Amino acid sequence: MGREGEAVALLMPAFEREHPDIHVEVQELPWKAAHQKLLTAIAGDTTPDVAQLGNTWIAELQALDTLEPLQPWVDRSAVVQPADYFAGIWATNRIGGALYGIPWYVDTRLLFYRKDLLKAAGFDAPPRDWTEWSRQLAALQARAAPNHYAILLPTNEFEQLLSLALQQGEPLLRDGGRYGNFESAGFKRALTFYVDIVKRHEAPLLANTEVPNPWTEFGRGVYAFYFSGPWNIGEFRQRLAPSQQDDWATAPLPGPHGPGAGIASGSSLVIFRHSPRKAQAWLLIEYLSRPQVQQQFYRLLGDMPPRRSAWQGDALRRDPAVQAFRDQLERVKPTPPVPEWERIVTEMQLVAAEAAHGQLTVEQAAAEIDRRADAILAKRRWMLDRAHGQRR
Amino acid sequence: MNRTRTAWLFLTPALLVLGVFFIAPVIGALGLSLTDYDLYALADIHNLRFVGLHNYWDLLQRPLFWSALGNTFYFVAVGVPLSIGASLGTALLLNSPLARMKSFYRAVLFAPVVTTVVAVAVIWRYLFNTKYGLVNYGLAELGVHPVDWLGDPHWAMPTIIAFAVWKNFGYNMIIFLAGLQAIPPELYEAARIDGASAPRQFWHITLPMLKPTMALVMVLTVAGYFQLFAEPYVMTEGGPLQSTVSVLYLMYDDGFKWWNLGVASAVAFMLFGVILAITITMLRLMRRREPA
Questions:
Q1: In Å, how far is A373's CA from the nearest CA of chain B?
Q2: Given an 8 Å threshold on Cβ–Cβ distance, is B39 in contact with A36?
Q3: pLDDT in tens, A339-390
Q4: What is the ipTM for the molecules in this complex?
Q5: Which of A152, A182, A352, B275 could anchor a disulfide with A223, C-beta 3.0 to 4.6 Å?
Q6: Is residue A83 in a domain?
Q7: Closest Cα to residue A322, out of A247, A250, A234?
Q8: Cβ burial, residue B177 (10 Å; 0-12/13-18/19+)
Q9: CATH value at residue A127
Q10: B44: which chain A residues are within 8 Å (Cβ-Cβ)?
């Protein structure tokens, strides 16, 4: 999918040389159309053998009963070593105790920051916990020019608030994914922290559709912190002037009390249940899971490998900007593995944006998110109850 | 008898195409709107429940549906008169005997219609950018404070309306132009001899003679504007605070993003009902005003 489709096509000749009897046909899909095309393929029973899946889609495709359980294949494999993978990422592929995907590349959201601006505000290092972060945001905002802000938190992106929410102890859904758990003390703490940043005008009330070029604005110091993912390392290197390259760096997310968790996102490789060529499909997954091949893939695209051993490669080990990601990947957490998750998290952000605009209090917003999540999960509850009834 | 059969024979291909590609899907969608068809039902048809009118009932109780309906009505109520006014105004200008380089201006004014929404929306987003946009730059020159066009829930819809009017007025302009050119010049000549001023000529000759054209344009534009989708989809993604979510946008989200095809079908039929009711009312009103 997307650029991965182009890059993986470059890795195929080597695989086909190793296995002359296998010919791999790569079909590229644009990310925007991928989800719909996959569902159409399932409805029409024309699924591929192997596919790349965003790891939040796995629960959905598993609910459609289209994915091959992979634990038996992993048990027999010399290449895929679960212990070598970041635990939070591996966990996103497990649903109800069974394994349905092998992580292919990973990403998590953290802080890009302007070293020079932070230094001018009197701080030598990025924040390690929320208290320090708040202090830095306040100090940066106090020195900021008009229409300049300490941080950019686009009101239509859920990843920022979700990262803060994952840092809390409480799960986001309760009773096995039957109900929302957004009225928990933890989520309310995260939402308060998020809303307060906006209320103190340390972040502008903007959607990302209104920030056409965040990179240049970061370069101009319009934002001192930018909360985003690994692909922006390449963007900043390319778009900022050479003289500015020493002024920015990355930092792991601060948590409520010390280094915090982050989102475990990324893509996984799956085998479809209806594939008649599962053994060959597994060989391909094994090939793409080799640390050397993952390093090659990183050099092609900058997609970060999910295996610790792949991070030993020079390209990754010698790059200071990726170290914060390496550090945070040890602490990433999966989101609840229910097919309805993307819809719930979208509603979460819609309500959170209303709270940020001052139309709802944190209490009201949390209750509203729970109400919407419960409504979205109604069918799931019915399914679970029915399955339970049948078993009895 | 033979003639009737021949007539049916000629009608069959058209009826077949209509039946397979229009009537059958509509009936299918109507059936779908009475179920809770979703992802789980796609996995296993046993997970499908017949829910009667529950989807419709739920929609009526959903605040987002009402605000989407309100946004759509807002868009139609402001957008349609503006759009028709702009079309008629430019058509009159182009039709004026004083106008020079008519075909050039006609092409230029028609150009927005044939441009791609997505590409143009990108440019409009830049024009209306709060900080770097040309529009706010112009306002600043006049001493007006910058407006957060696409980020302020109160301004986003007016901006979308301006975009849609600009994008679409050329189409109706061409229809009006054809209507204007069909008015016999003798009528104006006679009016001039009687000493009628230009506004009176417009009121007593141009408008009545344009009535059939106007009716067509009104019905097409209202029906088209009710189906607002692409403009918010590319300009604001329904935001800020869902202030630009239209009924069709809601249907797209429910159906193709979340795969709740049952709910989405119900939304589609609600919108169909609204458009049908309004079109019928409009046609009735126009017919009543016509002298018998």
A1: 14
A2: no
A3: 899 899 999 999 999 999 999 999 999 999 999 999 999 999 998 888 877 7
A4: 0.75
A5: A152
A6: yes
A7: A250
A8: buried
A9: 3.40.190.10
A10: 65
In a domain, A327, yes or no: no
Is A244 in the same domain as A273?
no
Task: Tell whether A175 and A209 lie within a shared domain.
Answer: yes
| CATH class of the domain whose range is B56-289 | mainly alpha
Tell me the per-residue pLDDT of A9-21, one tens digit each, with 9 for 90 and over.
889 999 999 999 9
Residues 6+ apart with CB under 8 A from A276: none
**Cis bond before residue A214 (omega within 30° of 0):** no
Residues above pLDDT 70, as percent of chain A: 99
- Range of the structural domain that residue A295 is part of: 2-107+264-318
The total number of structural domains in chain A stands at: 2
Residue A90 sits in the same domain as residue A195: no
Residue B292: per-residue pLDDT: 43
Q: Inter-chain contact A383–B126, Cβ cutoff 8 Å?
A: no
Same domain, A102 and A55: yes
Identify from A67, A209, A273, A345 which residue to disrupt to test chain B contact, counting B C-beta atoms within 10 A and taking the largest count.
A209
Same-domain pairing of A224 and A279: no
Suggest the residue from B37, B67, B131 to mutate for an interface test with chain A (most A CBs closer than 10 A).
Answer: B131
- Half-sphere exposure of A73 toward its Cβ, with a 13 Å CA cutoff? 20
Q: How many angstroms from the chain centroid is the CA of residue A167?
A: 14
Q: Which residues of chain B make contact with A380, given a CB cutoff of 8 A?
A: 40
Give the confidence band of A30 by pLDDT, cuts at 50, 70, 90. Answer: confident
Question: Are the beta carbons of A137 and A194 closer than 8 angstroms?
Answer: no
Domains in chain B: boundaries = 56-289
Q: Are residue A366 and residue A286 in the same domain, yes or no?
A: no
- Flag whether residue A357 sits within 8 Å of chain B, measured between CB atoms: yes
